[in-house]
């Protein structure tokens, strides 16, 4: 069972790394790849990450990445993977704000500030699970059903012990998701400021 | 329509989520409380009070041998550290430690050797796991290994916890574990314990696990990155199923737990306080089998930011091995306490380089204590990072030391301990 879990984790990490790389190439080249090309590139890159390439490496490339960042949360993974869907829409602003605010409250306490440890709630707190479900319902109410699906899948992954962790937090949140959310918010803020500045410049009374 | 389907799916996830929480095992009391309080009291009362002083070393009697000393077998590595012990089914003792060109070097391996108490000899050392073996087993990059801590599962299997680092120093550690069906001759694939939400960084282990009555283990662990604090991990073999904070902030790591009763335990820590703060041993208490911990008054014994080893004997005596100085690790002492009185006494100075100039003083650190028969004790500690020393304290020697502890009120305990230093 442990062997299977490790293999699946490496496959998951290989797909994630390949996808990030592919999105990076797409962004840099300013090209929009057709779906078939994306899938083909993803297949090739995933294999490069998953299999041990020999030379000086003792492990597959994905294992090196996994050693540094650990297993990503199901929410991060599925958000990233969902960019492959033809009907892909970005996450709503409210979701990014929620992730950033939760992380700013959560990490200081989880990393040792006071005797309160919110991370321990993730092992089996009914109230915490209820709060997570409520956030998934809110996703549905604001018409972002992808969020509802992702949170639902994260809960199921936690129950079946898909990753090494038995803590629900690890299926919902990870530092890279937080960095992405904060980066997206800061980018948006800068973009709006730029737009405001431009409009002010153009329509400034002479 | 898609919203309705999504909500139905969420409902399904909610049902199995709540069922999962409902199926979790209830928190069990501590196990292995074999303290015979009455016996301990009788032993103490038999000793006249006036004859014992705090500084008194146990007088040698011809009939009781002094603690037996030897060295763990040489692996050829120039640097060794963090030894630990466990009693085997056949009465032998197995030691684990890490050895390499230096602490944290990529060539550091976890070594093991078996001590035969009949012949008083150590067998040749073997390698339990090296960095590449850990990498392959854990399917991730590993830079270095350290701190092996063994435990015995109720089904007889041996479990070994150790820390691995993928990036950075020891603060970037995570705990991994392996199981053995043959008392440590062969080991299964290592598995990772997930204990921290931040890339699982910075959880380490140093002290022995505590048995719970449901057969599960409670593992005292600690963080030493942004925070430096103790945590009590509740394990279901290779999985963390709960954890509770034992301290907070940046001042206490490496908890050593003394189980007093089924619900009652005390943890002593290695202090990591900043300059100007008391260099004493931080203490935490639990009254509900580790479900919650409260900080208590420091133990009035000096601690120079170095590990403390603790053990409870069958007769209720508590043992501590530590460096009872504010700076440096050049003195290592063996202390004993009657839990009824709470007084700690130095009963043996194991190492002391105080008389030497600073640059010639050696380091004596990372003590680890176990009991084999219940009333005796084995101790290992790092000797100048070059060797690991092993001491055996017989039950007769420990009984005599215990009988000579002063019987005084709690009010006088702090004075007594200060004198002992």
Sheet with most strands of chain A:
none
Terminal-residue CA separation of chain A? 73 Å
Oligomer: heterodimer
Sequence stretches where pLDDT stays below 50 over 5 or more residues of chain B = 33-56, 410-421
Q: Please bin the fraction of helical residues of chain B.
A: 10-25%
Cα end-to-end separation of chain B: 76 Å
Helix content of chain A: 55-70%
Structural class given helices, strands, pairing of chain B?
mainly beta
Mean pLDDT of chain A: 93
The amount of beta strand of chain B, in percent, is: 35-45%
Write down the overall mean pLDDT of chain B: 90
Largest interface: A-B, 58 and 55 residues
**Individual helix count of chain A:** 9
Describe what you observe in this structure.
The complex is a heterodimer of chains A (206) and B (421). Chain A is mostly helical and 206 residues long. Helix content of chain A is 69%, strand content 0%. Chain A contains 9 helices and no strands. The longest helix of chain A has 28 residues, at 2-29. In chain B, the strands form 6 sheets. In chain B, strands 2, 3, 4, 5 and 6 form a 5-stranded antiparallel beta sheet that branches. In chain B, 49% of the residues are buried. In chain B, a hairpin with a 5-residue loop joins strand 16 (252-259) and strand 17 (265-271). With 421 residues, chain B is mainly beta. Chain B has 5 helices and 26 strands. The model of chain B is unreliable at 33-56 and 410-421 (pLDDT under 50). The chains are: A mainly alpha (206), B mainly beta (421).
Set down the secondary structure blueprint.
The complex is a heterodimer of chains A (206) and B (421).
Chain A: H1 2-29, H2 35-50, H3 61-69, H4 74-81, H5 93-110, H6 126-141, H7 145-159, H8 169-172, H9 175-202
Helix pairs in contact in A: 1-2, 1-3, 4-7, 5-9, 6-7
Chain B: H1 2-22, H2 37-45, E1 68-71, E2 79-87, E3 93-100, E4 109-116, E5 121-122, E6 126-129, H3 131-138, E7 144-152, E8 158-165, E9 173-180, E10 191-192, E11 204-205, E12 210-211, E13 217-224, E14 228-236, E15 239-245, E16 252-259, E17 265-271, E18 280-286, E19 294-302, E20 309-312, E21 318-322, E22 331-338, E23 343-352, E24 364-370, E25 377-383, E26 387-393, H4 395-403, H5 413-420
Antiparallel strand pairs in B: 1-26, 2-3, 3-4, 4-5, 4-6, 7-8, 8-9, 9-10, 11-13, 12-13, 13-14, 14-15, 16-17, 17-18, 18-19, 20-21, 21-22, 22-23, 24-25, 25-26
């Amino acid at each position: 069972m442990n062997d299977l879990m490790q293999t699946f984790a490496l496959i998951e990490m290989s797909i994630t790394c390949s996808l990030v790389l592919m999105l990076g190439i797409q962004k840099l080249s300013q090209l929009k790849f057709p779906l078939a090309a994306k899938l083909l590139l993803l297949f090739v890159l995933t294999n490069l990450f998953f299999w041990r390439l020999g030379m000086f490496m003792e492990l597959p490339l994905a294992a090196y990445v996994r050693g540094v960042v650990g297993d990503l949360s199901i929410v991060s993974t599925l958000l990233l993977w969902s960019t492959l869907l033809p009907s892909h829409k970005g996450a709503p602003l409210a979701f990014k704000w929620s992730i950033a605010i939760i992380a700013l409250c959560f990490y200081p306490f989880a990393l040792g500030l006071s005797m309160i440890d919110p991370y321990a709630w993730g092992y089996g707190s009914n109230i915490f699970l209820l709060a997570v479900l409520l956030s998934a319902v809110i996703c549905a109410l604001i018409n972002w059903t992808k969020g509802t699906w992702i949170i639902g899948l994260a809960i199921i992954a936690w129950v079946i012990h898909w990753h090494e962790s038995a803590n629900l937090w690890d299926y919902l949140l990870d530092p890279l998701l937080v960095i992405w959310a904060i980066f997206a918010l800061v980018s948006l803020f800068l973009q709006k400021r730029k737009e405001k500045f431009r409009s002010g410049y153009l329509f400034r009374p002479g | 329509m898609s919203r309705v389907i999504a909500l139905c799916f969420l409902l399904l996830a909610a049902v199995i989520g709540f069922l999962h929480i409902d199926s979790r095992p209830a928190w069990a009391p501590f196990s292995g409380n074999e303290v015979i309080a009455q016996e301990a009291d009788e032993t103490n009362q038999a000793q006249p009070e006036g004859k014992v002083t705090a500084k008194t070393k146990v007088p040698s009697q011809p009939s009781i041998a002094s603690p037996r000393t030897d060295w763990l077998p040489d692996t050829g590595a120039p640097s060794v550290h963090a030894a630990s012990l466990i009693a085997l089914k056949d009465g032998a003792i197995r030691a684990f430690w890490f050895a390499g060109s230096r602490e944290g070097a990529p060539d550091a391996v976890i070594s093991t050797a078996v001590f035969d108490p009949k012949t008083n000899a150590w067998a040749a050392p073997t390698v339990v796991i090296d960095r590449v073996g850990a990498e392959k087993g854990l399917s991730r990059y590993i830079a270095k290994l350290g701190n092996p801590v063994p435990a015995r599962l109720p089904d007889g299997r041996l479990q070994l916890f150790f820390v691995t680092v993928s990036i950075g120093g020891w603060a970037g550690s995570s705990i991994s574990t392996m199981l053995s069906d043959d008392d440590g001759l062969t080991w299964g694939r290592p598995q990772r314990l997930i204990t921290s939400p931040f890339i699982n960084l910075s959880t380490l282990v140093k002290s022995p696990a505590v048995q719970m009555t449901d057969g599960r283990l409670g593992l005292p662990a600690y963080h030493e990155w942004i925070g430096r604090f103790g945590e009590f991990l509740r394990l279901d073999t290779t999985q963390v199923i709960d954890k509770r904070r034992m301290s907070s902030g940046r001042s206490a790591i490496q908890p050593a737990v003394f189980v007093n009763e089924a619900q009652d335990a005390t943890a002593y820590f290695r202090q990591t306080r900043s300059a100007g703060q008391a260099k004493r041993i931080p203490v935490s208490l639990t009254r509900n089998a580790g479900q919650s911990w409260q900080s208590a008054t420091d133990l009035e014994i000096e601690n120079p930011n170095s590990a403390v080893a603790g053990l409870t004997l069958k007769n209720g005596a508590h043992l501590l091995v530590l460096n009872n100085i504010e700076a440096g690790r050049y003195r290592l002492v063996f202390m004993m306490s009657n839990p009824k009185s709470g007084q700690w006494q130095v009963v043996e100075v194991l190492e002391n380089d105080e008389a030497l100039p600073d640059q010639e003083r050696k380091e004596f650190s990372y003590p680890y204590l176990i009991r084999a028969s219940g009333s005796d004790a084995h101790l290992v500690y790092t000797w100048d990072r070059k060797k690991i020393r092993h001491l055996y304290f017989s039950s007769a020697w420990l009984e005599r030391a215990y009988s000579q502890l002063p019987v005084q009120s709690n009010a006088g305990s702090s004075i007594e301990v200060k004198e002992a230093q």
